[in-house]
Amino acid sequence: MNSKPIIKYLPDFLDYCEIEKGLSVKTQENYSRFLNKFFFWLEQENLASLPPEKLDSKHIWNYKVFLSRHIDKKKKRPLKKTTQNYYLIALRSLLEFFVEKEITSLPPSKVKLAKDKAEKEVKFLKLDQLARLLEAPDTSNIIGLRDRALLETLFSTGLRVAELAALNRDQIKIKADTQYLEIAVVGKGEKIRTVYFSQRAIRALSAYLNKRHDLDEALFINYKRGAEKSDASRRLTVKSIEDIVKKYVIIAGLPVMATPHTLRHSFATDLLNSGVDLRTVQEFLGHSNIATTQIYTHVTNKQLRDIHRKVHGEKHF
Q1: Residue 246 sits in a domain of what CATH number?
Q2: Which of 70, 123, 188, 193 is catalytic?
Q3: Can you give the residue range of the structural domain that contains 101?
Q4: Which of 163, 264, 297, 303 is the most exposed place for a label (fewest CB within 10 A)?
Q5: DSSP H helical segments within 45-174, as ranges?
């Protein structure tokens, strides 16, 4: 039986986060800080020598009680539910590490997050609202073609706005017979994932790119007066993309002030409503931890590409 204390596994866990999960240095620092709270509690309870196989549900419950009654020294008040959950998510990640390394311990599912009654609802658009938004641009000109392609891409892929802004033209290889497109993008923590484009998005991108006669490498560029005469890149900024979405929300007369992230939420919600399981949605969104995806809901499992073809095919509008 392994007698190595849980506390002694921190360096191994952080190496795992860096090498196998590809997490950023900042994320590793956060995990270390959150887990040190748990280690402090173990020491306080005379459990510093507790090995992974001896950890049980009672320990988890007592730790949750400790977190709920802990007073933040700086703010002189109890920890918020969201903050408590950061500590619990870190602990659950440590237990997931034990599973990966075949170290006997408590299942990660035994660490339940604290419910936050004040938690904000995820804002997303209904299909009829999405239809109005996506069809709002005037595609008789290059700006409208760009904006239609931009909106379709956001909804089809679930990209973060910064990921969308970073796209280059050479990533979008569309031929006359292209029915489906998938590309690799680098997201948060330098994590690489595949995103998928529906036929609607492909048609919109093709119409836009066919009207491009510039040499800028960026996929989405600005058309400000005189911009074409400058040697600087015309790549749209995150703020510019946010403003474009806001513009068409107003034109479409939507009752909610949607943002690019609202389209990302809409993408995820649409997948879940169509029967996609949470871990698959986690892969689509590029979340490092399933807890982040749990702001949505739980559904059943299917294959990524088949799901995307079914959900983001021709059925919507």
Answers
A1: 1.10.443.10
A2: 188
A3: 6-110
A4: 303
A5: 57-69, 81-100, 127-134, 142-157, 161-165
